[in-house]
Fold this protein.
Amino acid sequence: MDRSQQPLPTDGAGGVQPPGSAARRGRLTRSGLRGREAELEALQELIASVARTGSGGLALIQGEPGIGKTTLLAEAVSGARAAGFSVGVGKADELHHIVPLSSLAASVLHGDQPLLSGDAFADLARNHDQRIWLVERLAEAIEARARSMPVLIGLDDVQWADPLSRFALKQLPTRLRTSPVLWLLTARREPAGPAEEVVAAATGNLPTVTVPLGPLSGAAIDQLVGDTLGAAADEQVRDLLEGAGGNPFLAVEMLAGLRTAEVSDELVPPGLVVGVRGRLRSLDPDTLRFLQMGAVLGRSFGFHDAAALCGRPAATLIPALEEAVRAGLLDDDGDHLVFRHDLLRQAVYVDIPPSARKALHREAARRLVSTGHQPIDAVPHILRGALPGDEECVALLQRVADDVLSVMPGLAADLMTRALDLVPPALPLRFTVGERTILSLTRAGRNREALSTGDRLLADRPPLEAFSRLQAALGGALWNMDLAGDLRRRTETALAMGGAAPEIGARLAALHALALSRAHDLVAAREAGESALRAATEVGDREAHILALSGLGEIAQNAGENAGALERFAALSAIDSAFLPEEIVAHLHMDDFASGERLLSQAAEQAGGMRQAMMLWAQGQYDLGLGRLDDADAGFMTMERLEDEVQTPVQQVNGRVIRSRIALLRGDREAAREHLVAARERLAAKPNPGNTAAVRFLEAVHAEADGDIGRAVDRIRQVQREGRFMRWRLLRDWVDSAIRIALRGGEHELAEDLAAQAEAHAERNAAVPTATGIAAQALGLVKNDLAMLEHSAELLKAGPRPLVRAAAHADLGQALLAAGRKRQAAAALTQARDTFAESGAHAEAARVRRALEGAGAGSRRAVTKQRPVQGWEALTASEKKVARLVAEGHTNRSAADLLVVSPHTVNTHLTSVFQKLSINSRVQLANVVMALPDS
């Protein structure tokens, strides 16, 4: 057959062809789109907007298979390339959606100027196990390219994207919204599917366009007929094309049949079966068999792999390959064979009997592994072809789960759950696989699923050794779910039953001590922790060692023994740097902010191995302690966003409590109330005693601000019912506020109890100025002791916390004023006012200023003005620094390096800058900064 007579190379919507295919099979008589002019115009407008404004955009092309999504994407990409865009386009594949970041790989590795080299991309995927870190590095590479030219990143068939690519697509468009980066995606219509998730994440942050593709009009179909046959459609052709339902791919396939049919007086020759399946039945049986093997392997497959599944030498199947290519069913790029459209692959695939499909998928997995492919390449076939009792498949799934656990724990959990399903209940292997399934589910944050899986396995009455392993594996899920009581009971039972391996016994003992850290008897908890640490050291089990140190650190912090907590967390951090945030916070509790700063800088240099949300928690605590309210607020906001992204909420309640207090200090009552509502919502999801105490205290502060002292006192008493006030380390620096509430409510006994707790805390931390100073302040407030308040102010001079000092000076000033010592009162109050104002605590500064006016000294300094809400002067000091650096051409990463903060924090600042300046791009920001008088 002459090559000029081959079927048409299009997925529909007219005649835009995949690169290289038209040269092999002939062309339409007219190139271009048919019936998609309006949709193409919408995409062209978005392309022009991104290039013109320098800001980002996202478009999603949606429709059924064969409706023309790929063709429209190709046409839009061609226009963008001609407009000077750097272009990268990839395609997700149904049978290759497991490998992390494989779907986005083509988008960043291919094109005229790849965004990343193959080696750089491999380094990202191989050496770093943090999803957030990896996405940030991708963002930096794209951002760097976008500084010199607009960038287009396209991904076809997003519904089949691998989990990590989907995660990245939900983050990157918003992260890069201020750069000229356009995202063009295609997907089948699928309510709440991956594509819709990507669009939802971008909506409101950057321009988004959804382009739905419906059936082609009759006029467009007529144009396709003219393009293909060189003549207008007559009534018989129109009747024939009714079966295509306006789907251009199906219409083109039917017309291709007409072009390739032998000459006959009849328009539809006898024996010509119109449609894809009819064309397949006309193939040689060897060719059809070869295509079926290829369809099992996926849309893209290797010739030798398909030949192996056929059970034939590759050389004998060359005629089959040639016929498949001639028929326009396959493309051959020299490395792989590719079905020209997935509808073709599906048409071949569904004609294979289901039982045969399973067997072929199983054989495909065996073939891929035996020929040196990565185990993860075989997983899609195992998921479709493995049968219960197939231990080889179970082992392979476990191996791949281990490989992807650090970067995609959700996928690892899914693979282990499937592996567990393949193990019959009677086999001892079930408990081994079950243990690893529980650990994977816990790592993925699916704690309830981990617990139910463990309890099902325990109901099968495992041997003692397996019983203890399962209980130890459940420890993480129970702790994450705040079920400390259940954890204590389970570990006690397992330890009492015996039969555990030495390392498992050590882990159970450490988990038991950790559970006891939430109990009231911390002396017994410490003894249990010390015993567990000795056991872990004796058996040399790293996991037990980490658990024991973690438990002892928690016990020390809950007991208020800051030096002991620092010792434990420093040792823990030395074993595993992931615990560096805990060590940093422990240094801050010791008032050692210099060490905290050093460790934060160290963490910034090796962020790939850190728990980044927890590092932001530590950074936020550092900024808060130093009175940097704006930076602290930005840090806690960023922390919450990162925790949401990885669906692991740890500090969100406490973060919102602190942000609400910050808003109250600033005088923003509306924001403070919003944070209180958010804290209550998050408390409902994580109602442990510490979170409950923090929210009740915040409610007390709000009630006081609203003038409801009775309610405020009630909330302080509720904190006490959860545990003594100073048990909750978040509240220790705020005990003075609780005492003032108690005194205002006439609850002197409650105030005395709080002061006694502060004094006991100071005795345990005699070397910590904040602890001793607050204790003196508390006693001075309760006893109305001016000398004690003066002593407090003197002690706090040696401490690093300006807001704590300001509060003590404010109390001292009020007491001096009451004693008639106006000059000394004015000095103390002035110091308090200035410190509050410098930190941005405008509401507190105003309160102290009113007291100063009472002392006759209110006019000595101009009133500090609050920032406006819009314009350059609305920016915080940190936001102005970031804005100037970005305007100079810095990326988020280079700005972060100069400011010694996280790129995520820079992104948070930049978001606020753009909102306050009402701009959308870095180009606009540069123009704003250049217009400033001091630029």
Q: What stands out?
A: Residues 1-31, 261-274 have pLDDT under 50 and may be disordered. Strands lie at 57-62, 86-91, 151-156, 181-187, 208-212, 300-301, 330-332, 337-339.
